[in-house]
Amino acid sequence: MIHFDPATRTFNLLLAASVYAMRVDDEGRLLHLSWGPRPAGAPADAPLTGPGFEIFTRHDELPLTLRYEFSTFGDSALQEVGLKAQFQSLPQQMAPGEAPHLPIRDVRLRYAGHEIVLDAEPGLAPTHGQPTAVASPRETLRLRLSDPVQPLEVTLCYRLTPEHDIIERWVEVVNTGSEAIEVETLAFATLHFPNGTNELTSVSGWWIREFIAARERLPAGVRSIEQKTVQTGHYTNPFFLLNRPGQAWEETGDVYFGALAFSGAWRIAFEQLHTLDVRCQAGYNPFDFGLTLAAGERHVTPAVVLGVSPEGWGGASRRLHAFALERVLPMPSDGPAFRPVLYNSWEATYFDLTLEGQTALARKAAALGVELFCVDDGWFGGRRDDHAGLGDWRVSPDVFPTGLDPLIDEVHRLGMQFGLWVEPEMVNPDSDLYRAHPDWVLHFAGRPRTESRYQLLLDFGRPEVVGHIYTLLHDLLERHAIDFIKWDMNRYATEPGSVAGQAIWRQHTAGVYAVMDRLRRAFPHLQIESCASGGGRIDLGILGRTDQVWTSDNTDAFDRIRIQEGYSLAYPARAMEAWVTHPISHQTGLPSPLSLRFDVAMRGGLGIGSNLNELSEAELADYASYIAFYKRLRPVVQGGRLYRLQRVEEYGASVIAYVAPDRRTAVYSAAVASYLQGWLRPPAPLRGLDPNAVYRVVDRHGVEVYRASGFELMMTGIPGDAARGASSSRTLLLEATDQ
Ligand code: DGJ
């Protein structure tokens, strides 16, 4: 609920377990008042109406300590700001005799009005028209601020999802004057955390080691997580968890969280003042930012999704997961209820594609219970290896002399859906597309064009390029009965010269989103996987137009435990594609048993990437049995609530549970990543079960291995995996019985 008190000019955003409050002061400044979990016993509809107070009374320190709800460059230039702009026109009132020098770079925002509307949309919201699981209207507060002398209006937007304590924030900036305004910095939101909230959890990584979680104490000054790329990136990911050190744990304590719904160059900067006040600017990365607002022009930023959990890091993750499942992921009403079991031939055949080879794999995959068969890289143009062909999205007669349709028909006849790999933002210099349009890539005239994986990035700042890519993909989907595309993206931007200038950092993302949205509109049954050399494009923006993401190219089950745990901090299992591959990992060269590979992959959307031709009949039977078991677990894995019972970073083992919303079923999954002899791992009591229900605990073969009440399971855990060694793992299904 949004509450406004006209007497004190106080705004309260009242959510299920938390409150967010702001007020307008006597000078019209919008100041942050408070944000946090509602104290136990406080009525759910009670607003804050007090004035708050300044930390210091010495007036000359005021700009340092004032908690501007949206900070701007001008009267204070000492700290990070959410908005910095240049005006080429002079304000009407100037001091007598004042000599003008331009541009003016002073923005002061004052309250100009507000409205409460239903379902306003942030920038880059999906336009594919497909529903989300929950579509009930949501209240949005639009708070208008304007500069008293400059022609700039800024609207701060707050859209509420109260049941998950989530506020989506974004800003709209409008040039109300007659001359262009140059915006140099623009955040989606400025945030203020309670004093001392300075322990940050974030992830970092690289190709094949994405999502490695780390916890650190914020320094005095600025610590930012960011990417200077046109995709979300591998180095880190645009989400954070923040708490007071020592006052939060997996299931206890207040944890603030935020995640950007944007896949371009982004930054989340935390600034800790000498007062231990912690502020944050979350939005576009200012490093090469440029936005020219023409007279009358409006720019709407994407959103940052924010919240606070009184139930520790686990509660923060569950809120983000529920939000993504209900409000972000497209869920066509006649689409599959759960993500299908996928087979992808990349690690089996790499570029060695033939109709016969793929058909043979498809037949074996179907016999195992696979539901979606995806052909990876190498099916098009001159793409016989990674040196050539990107950009020429025509079926290669060298590979499929009779076209793709015989394979697609066979896959469909086998009862599976058909998927195909594409990498639409790229071009190899050795391609017909590049030979025809060498100027269609990011570059600066007369300067070198750095290749990465022998490829260049198309300039999505050119509308004709975006149009061309859309047309090619549309034709491909129109000509062939393709159910699924794996949309890959395998390099970073260098020499970011575009006809769009600095706007390319936003326009590239906008172009990708637009092509995906148009394709989904034109082909409502199309499913899309986001891949960028593994997990390089995973965020709440891309999840709004895709069905799943490729978490990492690293399919080594040991590494994967850690990668998936980091992913799970922010993103839901339903979207997390996870493959079972070879006994010796192609990425690490290390062995892992089949049980561990399945137990880890069954924590997300199960996929198979092994070369099925190398498996014995007995192994194939084992695969089939795991896949059948996964189909029983899947509703809980993909739609349940995640509890991280033991984290790999603490225990060397990861134990998790997914619990169905009605608590009648749950999945228990334990996987040991590293093990020191002589070490006894403590039991992992469950969470989230119905204490009064009795659960039977069954294994993959349907054998009941344990039976106990929810109360007992949540006090003591499931016996049997405490003393096991490295690489041991198990997955169990819990079903409530009636006695
Ligand atoms: C990178 C992806 O992450 C892989 O899964 C595979 O699709 C290759 N690209 C193909 O080139």
Report on this model:
The protein is α+β, with helices and mostly antiparallel strands. Among the domains are: 246 residues, Distorted Sandwich (Beta-galactosidase, Chain A, domain 5), CATH 2.70.98; 93 residues, Immunoglobulin-like, CATH 2.60.40.1180. Strands 6, 7, 8, 9, 11, 12, 14, 15, 19 and 20 form a ten-stranded antiparallel β-sheet that branches. It binds (2R,3S,4R,5S)-2-(hydroxymethyl)piperidine-3,4,5-triol. (2R,3S,4R,5S)-2-(hydroxymethyl)piperidine-3,4,5-triol binds next to loops.
Question: What topology emerges from the helices and strands here?
Answer:
Layout: E1 2-5, E2 10-14, E3 18-24, E4 30-37, H1 62-65, E5 83-87, E6 110-118, E7 139-146, E8 152-161, E9 166-175, E10 181-193, E11 199-204, E12 212-217, E13 221-227, E14 239-243, E15 255-260, E16 266-272, E17 278-284, E18 291-293, E19 298-300, E20 304-309, H2 312-328, E21 342-344, H3 346-349, H4 355-368, E22 372-375, H5 405-413, E23 417-422, E24 426-427, H6 432-436, E25 456-457, H7 463-479, E26 484-487, H8 504-522, E27 527-530, E28 548-550, H9 557-568, E29 576-580, H10 594-601, E30 605-608, H11 617-639, E31 641-646, H12 648-651, E32 653-659, E33 665-672, E34 694-698, E35 704-709, H13 710-716, E36 729-737
The structure holds (2R,3S,4R,5S)-2-(hydroxymethyl)piperidine-3,4,5-triol.
Low-confidence stretches: none
CATH T-level topology of the domain at 83-328: Beta-galactosidase, Chain A, domain 5
Give the strand tally. Answer: 36
Question: Helical amount among residues, as a percent range?
Answer: 10-25%
CATH class of the domain at 83-328: Mainly Beta
Beta-strand portion reads 25-35%
Counting DSSP H or I runs of 4 or more residues, the number of helices is: 13
The distinct ligands, each listed once, are:
(2R,3S,4R,5S)-2-(hydroxymethyl)piperidine-3,4,5-triol
Q: Specify the overall morphology.
A: globular
Mean pLDDT: 95
Q: Considering the protein shown, what is the CATH homologous superfamily of the domain at 83-328?
A: alpha-galactosidase from lactobacil brevis
Instruction: Using the CA coordinates, give the radius of gyration.
Output: 27 Å
CATH architecture of the domain at 83-328: Distorted Sandwich
* Structural class category: alpha+beta
Which oligomeric form is depicted? single chain
Distance between the termini: 41 Å
Largest sheet: 10 strands, antiparallel
